[in-house]
Each structure stands twice: as C-alpha cells, then as structure tokens.
Amino acid sequence: MTNLGIGLIGYAFMGAAHSQAWRNAPRFFDLPLHPDLNVLCGRNAEAVQAAATKLGWTETETDWRKLLGRDDIQLVDVCTPGDSHAEIAIAALEAGKHVLCEKPLANTVAEAEAMAAAAARASARGIRSMVGFTYRRVPAIGLARKLVAEGKIGTIRHVRAQYLQDWIADPEAPLSWRLDKEKAGSGALGDIGAHIVDLTQYITGDRITEVSGQLETFVKERPVAAEHSGLAGTAGAERGPVTVDDAAIFLARFGEGALGVFEATRFATGRKNAIRIEINGSRGSLAFDFEDMNLLHYYDATEPADTAGFRRILATEPVHPYVAAWWPPGHLLGYEHGFTHQVVDLITAIAEGTDPSPSFADGLQVQRVLAAVEDSSASRQWQEIPG
Ligand code: SOE
C-alpha cells in the first residue's frame, strides 16, 4: 500500500476533529492509500507542538509555505479561519498537493471562484480537492439522499431546514474569530447556514435558484476574548464590535419547483447543534435532526391511511452508508464519524483518480447562495443565484 503524507493547518476544534479522522480512517476502513499524520502546522511553535503531541502528528511547521514545499506531504488539509482558505488552498494546489478545505469554502464569491478555477486546473493534472461539508457523511443523510433519488417521496414540494445553536446567546460570551467578518466572512449564515444549504441541495439533488433573506446581529458589542479556542473563550476587560450576523433566515426557490425555508442561528437557547431538515414530497416525507443523528424519519404517503405514519429508521445497519466498517447494528455513531467518512471518500477518490465531492465548484455554488442572502437582506429584494 502506498502512503499519503498529510499536512494539517490549524489545530483548534476543526483541527482536532480532522486529526481524529485521519488517525481513525485506516483503523476501521480498508483504504487504498494509508494516510500518514506527518506534519501539523500552526503559527505558535509551542502550541502547535503541544497539539501535535496530543493529536498524534509526527512533526510540526510554523509556516504553511514551508509545509507546501515538503516532499513528504501529498495532501494539505486546511482548517484555518476562512480568510486564509483561498491563499493556502490555491498555493497548495499549484504546488501539486491534494487539498481538503474546511467550509465555507471562502469568505467571498471572488475568492471561491479563484479556488474553483485552481481546483479545475489542478484536476487536469490529477490533483484532487474537496470542501468539508462533513454532515453529508452522516449515514442517515446518505439514506435520505438515496430515498429521494429512488423516488420514494415523489416530487419535492417543501424543503424546511434549520441549523440551531446557542453558544453565543449570552451577550457576555466573548468575541471569537467566528464573530469577525474579516476572519469569518459572515456569521451564522456562513458558519452553519452553509451546511444546510449544502445538505438540502445534496439530499434533494436540486439547486437553490433564488432567495429572499434577512440577517440580524442581536448583540452588537462583546468582551474581547482574553483566550479563545474552538467555540470556548474567556472574556477580557475590553469590548469590541460584532461584525457578522447572529442569525440568518431566508426563503428559497429550488430549480425543480420546491419552496424552501431556512434558518441559521446561534441564539436558539437550548438548541446545541440541531440541524433539522424536513422534506415533503408528493409521495411522502423525510425528517432529520442532528441532535438525534442516527435516526431518519420517513413517511410513506402511499400506505393505507389507517396505518400510515412516520417511520423511525435507525440508520445503523450495515446496509446504511459507512456503517458496516464500525459497530454491530444499533451501536450508534456520533459527530466525529462524519469527519472519518469524509477522509475515507477523499482518499478513495485520490486512489481512483476521480474528483471527490463536494468539489470546490460545489463550495462556490454554496458561496453564491450565501452572498445572495446577504444581498437580499441589504436590498430587501429577492436575489437570483448566478450560474
Ligand atoms: C460552530 O458553529 C461550528 O463548529 C461550525 O463551525 C461547524 O461547521 C459545525 O459543524 C459545528 O458548529
């Protein structure tokens, strides 16, 4: 078996999740290439070394350009804030490295366009790229997509999607990079709204064509973080402005005629990581909530009225996507498994010489939807999604 040298940039929340995925993938899946956790990269030498020791990386670098110059790195995994995605990913692709880039693909449509163009050029040279819309790899989501593709719910009429968190509902929760437009591009819209845009399009196999949205920033100023990592931080004495949206809502039209209602917020008190998707079709419905992520609810409208009702499918059978590699039926998967499935699919595509999905072009299309929601909120007009 050939080895695939991995270089990961970033070691906070996403860096840890990706590290676990690279480590676990060959332990549970039969892979055509073996990922080697060669280099962890971050700017602070001491902190990156501590993270490397904890997360299982062999060496460290403090300059991502040096990482790109190394012969023992064939794949660069970008887990930095959005403001550096384009520069790093494009340079990595040009250096002949495969790239996995965290979502949203970029902070602006222009950056995402440049990344998609670089990915297309690299693909012609056999270099692969993927954007990390991890939730696609939840088995129940894969099952939902399959049922839609098989026509089990017929023609889709309604798409209802919410991504609900509450980690900044407290007005004294400190500023993190996720609340800084320069770093993150947008707030709830890009951080979590991007996931439900991708997921609903993935499940339905359809695309959003127009949107009408509203954004709101409820808490306009917060304590500057004395320390911050992942979603947690401690408040310092100074205060600073929140420059992104706290919540985003939008209506959408899909290409094949469905109507969509979307909501992304970090102020849904009591909702920790609820990704709720309900799809109603002419022959039935599907419903999913990530807070109960092993379940898919399926309603078959063709069943006799006296026994029809939502069926609760536990997507933990070996026939469900990815499940056979893990535990016996019913032994449940969690948040981290999606990251492992993501790298399994990426490694497989690299070995097979095919472009994995979601591609940078898919990431660009999501970026266009996000930008259209922002434009709509500013103009108070419906906005079409170009392309
Ligand atoms: C924070 O809102 C966050 O970590 C997102 O950035 C991730 O994409 C999501 O998976 C969980 O929540």
Explain briefly what this protein structure is.
33% of the residues lie in helices and 29% in strands.
What does this structure look like?
- Helix 1 packs across helix 9, helix 5 packs antiparallel against helix 10 and helix 6 packs across helix 8.
- With 387 residues, the chain is of the alpha/beta class.
- Helices cover 33% and strands 29% of the residues.
- It contains 10 helices and 17 strands.
- The protein is globular.
- The model has no long low-confidence stretch (mean pLDDT 97).
- The strands form 3 sheets. It has a 9-stranded mixed beta sheet with strand order 16-15-14-13-7-12-11-8-17. A 6-stranded parallel beta sheet has the order 3-2-1-4-5-6, sandwiched between helices.
- The chain has 2 domains: 134 residues, NAD(P)-binding Rossmann-like Domain (Rossmann fold), CATH 3.40.50.720; 194 residues, Dihydrodipicolinate Reductase, domain 2, CATH 3.30.360.
- Strand 2, helix 2 and strand 3 form a beta-alpha-beta unit.
- The chain binds alpha-L-sorbopyranose (SOE).
- Alpha-L-sorbopyranose binds next to helix 8.
- This is Gfo/Idh/MocA family oxidoreductase.
- One of its GO terms (molecular function) is nucleotide binding.
- It holds the Pfam family GFO_IDH_MocA_C3.
- Keywords: Oxidoreductase.
- InterPro entries: Gfo/Idh/MocA-like_OxRdtase_N, Gfo/Idh/MocA_oxidrdct_glycsds, GFO_IDH_MocA-like_dom, NAD(P)-bd_dom_sf.
User: Which regions are unreliable across 5 or more consecutive residues at pLDDT < 50?
Assistant: none
Question: Which series of helices and strands comes N to C?
Answer: EHEHEHEHEHEHEHHEEEEEEEEEHHE
**Rg, please?**
21 Å
What percentage of amino acids are in beta strands?
A: 25-35%
Helix content: 25-40%
Number of self-contained structural domains = 2
Strand order, largest beta sheet: 16-15-14-13-7-12-11-8-17
Number of strands: 17
Q: Span from first to last CA?
A: 41 Å
**Spatial shape:** globular
CATH architecture of the largest domain: 2-Layer Sandwich
CATH class of the largest domain: Alpha Beta
Major pleated sheet: 9 strands, mixed
Fourth CATH level, the homologous superfamily of the largest domain: Dihydrodipicolinate Reductase, domain 2
Q: What is the CATH topology assignment of the largest domain?
A: Dihydrodipicolinate Reductase, domain 2
Number of helices in the DSSP assignment: 10
Structural class of the secondary elements?
A: alpha/beta
Mean pLDDT: 97
